[in-house]
Amino acid sequence: MDLPSGGVPPLIDTPAGFHAAASALAAGQGPIAVDTERASGFRYDDRAFLLQIRRRGVGTLLLDPEGHRDDLTAALAPVLSGADWVIHAAASDLPCLAWLGLYPGSLFDTELASRLAGFDHVNLAAMTEQIFDVHLRKGHGAEDWSQRPLPENWLAYAALDVELLLDLAEAMAEILDAQGKLDWATEEFEHIRATHADITEPASTTWQDTKGVSTLTRPEQLAVARELWLARETIAVDNDRAVSRVLPNKVLVEVARTLPDTPAQLARVRGFPGRRKSATSFWFQILTRARASDPATWPARQRPDRGTPSHQTWARDYPEAHGRLVAAREALADLAVEVSVPTENLLRPAVLRAAVWESTQTTLSPMDLADFLSDHEARAWQLELAMPLLSPLLTPVRG
């Protein structure tokens, strides 16, 4: 399928258009299919630059929020917020929709539904092909959706993302119901909805959140990483540019690790834009300033909280925990095959490791274990399936 059934919808990008779209949606019937296109690889944050919305009796609407975000929220929130939504891979879209003040009342995630139903390939194109024998034209997901005007073929691609979404949700609900998993899915969908219900803006980050910074050990390295991050953040914010396009994390960390002494050494750091003399000069100044600063102001290495140690060391340092973890993983893997649900959907690996470690630090009763898993956001259906397997392994009777 190369084009939406009703043709490519016009792009709605004015306050008057948003209000007309809201009136049309209010007159439609049933759940509302929602999708977004973002530009996080190009722009500073992950905000939506296109909303695709479809409802029966209305068809597909394409809305451009940039420049009129408050107007879009004022028009659409009374209709969309609190309604029943259908989204494919909801966790990727819900944050930017929440930044627009748009929140579902209930949720059906067709991607997660497909996982729970036992499908191996769960992207939207694969699912529409498997369920409806319809091949959706793909290929524009990684484009710069912040550019204007948007090409017609991009808009066609975007509209196709919601063309069959309502039908797919109905089909997946029937499949899950026949498998006895619809209640499981409903719990999962509600967990995702509730997790995003209080989001109002992008989460704040610091230089210490940068991937790879935790591998730096010397205060001088950390001081350089901090200054590079602060400079990068200023440039990215001021120019609304993705930080990866200013200075990628790997490069930032490698510069801090190696502490180049000359511009030529900096230019040779793998991935650094060394061909641009202006970039080399600018970043070397930041690097030099950080190294020349008062060592008393350099940050100390953050020690990890005393909690669950890295499971990669368990086989060597904690053989009891390692043995229990291996046994628990094998039990869940067998269960995953039996119920045709991915192991990570039965219980998050990090939660399983935490429970195993806790069982070696204190004597747990089955009720203690259930409470521990619940406190770590395991849902009721997961407890029902996993507890009979994990309880004998993690709450052993001690003689």
Automatic annotation (TrEMBL):
CDD domains: RNaseD_exo
Domain HRDC: 218-297
A Pfam family assignment: DNA_pol_A_exoN
InterPro entries cross-referenced by the UniProt entry: 3'-5'_exonuclease_dom, Exo_C, HRDC-like_sf, HRDC_dom, HRDC_dom_sf, RNase_D-like, RNaseH-like_sf, RNaseH_sf
PANTHER family: RIBONUCLEASE D
Name of the protein: Ribonuclease D
Organism: Corynebacterium suedekumii
